[in-house]
Specification:
The complex is a heterodimer of chains A (220) and B (542).
Chain A (H helix, E strand, L loop, with lengths): L3 H5 L10 H36 L1 H9 L3 H26 L3 H32 L14 H37 L9 H25 L1 H5 L1
Helix pairs in contact in A: 2-3, 2-6, 2-7, 3-6, 4-5, 4-7, 5-6, 6-7
Chain B lengths: L20 H5 L4 H29 L10 H37 L7 H23 L13 H5 L4 H28 L12 H33 L12 H35 L6 H15 L14 H29 L8 H24 L1 H7 L3 H31 L5 H28 L13 H31 L50
Classes of the chains: A mainly alpha (220), B mainly alpha (542).
The complex binds copper (II) ion.
The site of copper (II) ion has 4 residues of chain B, from α8.
């Protein structure tokens, strides 16, 4: 068995003075990274805002072609997965590595489900011809501005889906490490910061969902 | 020949622990990564310099005779992209910053050493891709990539160039991100915020801009690439898109990017001016907060690049006013450096010459920036050589002078050798003279109406253009000199003492060159920044 000081410094990298400094650095690092991500998405949200103001009616038409139920189910899936990730962080803090792994794996699987539903939606858009450019088939007033809506829709949800994909892989790997007992109540930063990342991906969707799916409902 | 023999048994330091190439390419030591960056940005500097040389040669005569207008477009584009994204942005932060930020705060390394190494590899990938673009036909959009030209009409390697910048951008995000966490979390005991060297404050402000601004230009350029790839996109007027939106997003980063270049230079100048005046920086808190103020205000002025692009008159008014505000913290710094020198015991070593050059040239650049912030004058001189001269006073007269000041100042610490002082002074003087001869005539040219980005011009502008090209030749000599004598000094330079300038920073209280772990044991700071009574008085090398 380890003596207590070995447990207290397990996972400590040499350039940190102690575990507390390492944990605080990891957490701050992830927050700074998320600020970067916010600015990255921010450019797209700015574009969305400008064009929605300029072409509001076209945005309503575009929104009517969203699959409301699939979007809503996906929102619920992501919210629940975030809850599981929060539970995983709690589990690892109290030393339950196995529970932590299970929570993370379920959350990861929910991410896969999200992507699958998103894929079904994309497919439907293709079939319907709601794809800007040569494949465009929708007969709607002001087709150009509606195409712009779909262009922004595909870029924003595509970028988000890319982040979900990264998150799915991340949670799976961290879950695997947890299952192998790599973490302890003293050293669990990877679980914590991956959790922060997943919550961020969730929050981006929380904004995308009303902005893309619910405009038509607001009008009704 | 007075070559001083190295000590018989050399102390173990970060340079001599391991000589294998592998140990360099896989290093996570912030000091070695700083050296890797130093080598790579120096190479890119000469690529950008080559393009500048071609530009100046073409402009020697009024006729467009040396190269076609298409080739000329590619030359100024390559010059701009390489110098801005691959030299100036990483110049001080990635080299001196990487080397010094942990040392100055008494840490063993940056918070995320592997991410630091990854940042260099991203830089190399971006730079490699950019070199591919240069060698296979170039890109002709100007470094600003304005749509719809870049997205639709240009027939050059826009996508590859954009991807190169995107990758390099993330290397700079990684650097800034590492600095922020390191400065917050890794300070040695006793190193409080109010005891931080001003170098650190400036780098903190720089990092904030890198982290907040770079992702915006990254997404803007991504959208340009998508628009090119799919022949339609967000800035496409055919879909109801607005090309001006691209300019907004681009300048939201690219104006603050000027502060990514200038703030680290200011960081160096604060250290150098204090050390060679042997006085605490006058108004420490004001200078520290001015860095933060510049970072914040810098994000609120971007549309001053768009006064004639068709933005509303009210927006123009507001952005003009805000642009004036940025002058306030900049002026605070300049005045405080002057006050630091006032009644100090000033010694004119090479770093100090560069620093004083910085102060003068930066002031010129800043003042002409105020001309450009004025709506009426901007309409007159927009897209003329006046603008070119203005930003070269900031980015070359300011940023590059500061960079060279820093390289000379910390050279003893980095290499363990002194540079030859006489040659250092000759090079500094050459650069100062060459710089002014190159760019001052361009103010006049611009005021008289010579537009930028043309390879031919009316004959009445020739005299001033010949002056400018002559100055550029002198400047080129000035830049090659340090390259030669610094390399020379690695072998033949005097062995540097630990603290040749009797400076106060923590980096001077450890051996030259430092050991891999920076400090034999974690330092405990009990003195204020720039407290010259805390270091033993030793004669300053001249
Ligand atoms: Cu600007």
């Amino acid at each position: 068995m380890h003596d207590s000081s070995a447990v207290a410094t397990h996972g400590l990298r040499h350039h940190f003075a102690d575990m507390e400094q390492q944990r605080a650095s990891a957490t701050l690092g992830m927050w700074v990274f998320l600020v970067t991500e916010i600015m990255f998405f921010g450019g797209l949200f700015a574009a969305y805002l400008v064009y929605r103001t300029a072409h509001y009616d076209a945005w309503v038409i575009g929104s009517e072609h969203m699959n409301f139920w699939l979007g809503t189910i996906n929102t619920v899936i992501l919210l629940c997965s975030s809850l599981l990730v929060a539970l995983a962080v709690h589990a690892v803090q109290v030393g339950q590595n196995r529970m932590c792994a299970i929570y993370l794996w379920i959350a990861s699987a929910m991410g896969v489900a999200f992507l699958a539903l998103k894929g079904i939606e994309y497919h439907a858009h293709f079939v319907e011809g709601a794809v800007p450019g040569a494949l465009w088939k929708l007969a709607v007033p002001d087709p150009r501005a509606v195409q712009m809506f779909f262009y922004i829709y595909f870029v924003m949800t595509g970028l988000h889906a890319l982040h979900v994909t990264i998150g799915v892989a991340l949670l799976a790997v961290i879950g695997w490490h947890a299952a192998r007992g790599r973490y302890s109540p003293v050293y669990y930063s990877p679980v914590h910061v991956s959790g922060l990342y997943w919550h961020f991906v969730d929050v981006v969707w929380i904004f995308l969902y009303p902005l893309l799916y619910l405009i038509a409902h607001k009008k009704a | 020949m007075a070559t001083i023999a190295a000590p018989a048994v050399e102390r173990e330091n970060y340079l001599n622990t391991d000589f294998r190439v592998r140990s360099w390419l896989l290093t996570t030591d912030h000091k070695r990564i700083g050296i890797l960056y130093l080598l790579s940005i120096t190479a890119m500097f000469f690529v950008g310099g080559f393009a500048a040389t071609m530009i100046r040669l073409e402009l020697l005569t009024p006729a467009g005779d040396l190269m076609s207008s298409d080739t000329y477009n590619k030359m100024f584009t390559i010059h701009g992209i390489v110098m801005v994204f691959f030299f100036l942005i990483p110049s001080i932060p990635a080299t001196l910053g990487n080397f010094l930020v942990p040392m100055m705060i008494g840490a063993r390394d940056l918070a995320f050493p592997k991410i630091n190494l990854a940042s260099w590899y991203m830089y190399i990938t971006g730079a490699g891709l950019m070199m591919y673009v240069v060698l296979t036909g170039g890109v002709d959009t100007g470094w600003t990539f304005y749509v719809p030209f870049s997205s639709t009409y240009s027939n050059t390697h826009v996508i590859a160039a954009v991807v190169a910048i995107f990758i390099a951008g993330f290397s700079s995000i990684f650097t800034g991100f590492n600095f922020i966490v390191t400065i917050h979390r890794m300070r040695a005991p006793g190193m409080t915020w109010s005891r931080l060297p001003l170098f650190i404050w400036s780098h903190y402000a720089t990092s904030v801009i890198m982290v907040l601004g770079t992702p915006v230009v990254a997404i803007a350029l991504t959208l340009v690439a998508l628009e090119r790839a799919f022949h339609m996109g967000i800035f496409d007027p055919r879909l109801g898109g607005d090309p001006l939106l691209f300019q907004h997003l681009f300048w939201f980063y690219s104006h603050p990017a000027v502060y990514i270049m200038i703030l680290p230079s200011m960081a160096v100048v604060s250290e150098v001016v204090s050390t060679f005046s042997r006085k605490r920086v006058f108004g420490y808190a004001a200078v520290a907060l001015a860095s933060i103020a510049i970072a914040v205000l810098g994000f609120l002025v971007w549309a001053h690049h768009m006064f004639v692009a068709g933005i509303s008159a009210y927006a123009a008014l507001v952005f003009s006013l805000l642009s004036y505000f940025v002058a306030v913290p900049s002026a605070i710094k300049v005045f405080n450096w002057m006050a630091t020198m006032y009644k100090g015991s000033v010694s004119l070593a090479t770093p100090m010459l560069y620093a004083m050059g910085f102060i003068g040239l930066f002031t010129m650049g800043g003042m002409t920036g105020l001309y450009l912030a004025a709506l009426g004058i901007d309409v007159h001189v927009h897209d003329t050589y006046f603008v070119i001269a203005h930003f070269h006073y900031i980015m070359v007269g300011g940023a590059v002078m500061g960079y060279l000041a820093g390289i000379h100042f910390w050279w003893p610490k980095i290499s363990g050798r002194m540079y030859p002082e006489a040659w250092g002074k000759i090079a500094a003087a050459t650069i100062f003279i060459g710089f002014n001869l190159t760019f001052f005539p361009q103010f006049v040219l611009g005021y008289l109406g010579m537009p930028r980005r043309y390879h031919a011009y009316p004959p009445e502008f020739q005299v001033l253009n010949v002056m400018s090209t002559a100055g550029a030749s002198i400047l080129a000599v000035g830049y090659v000199l340090p390259l030669i004598y610094l390399l020379w000094s690695l072998r033949y330079g005097e062995v540097a003492p630990d603290n040749p300038w009797a400076a106060t920073g923590l980096e001077w209280r450890t051996p030259s060159p430092p050991p891999t772990e920076n400090f034999p044991e974690t330092p405990v700071v009990t003195w204020e920044a720039y407290d010259y009574s805390s270091v033993a008085e030793v004669p300053v090398a001249r």
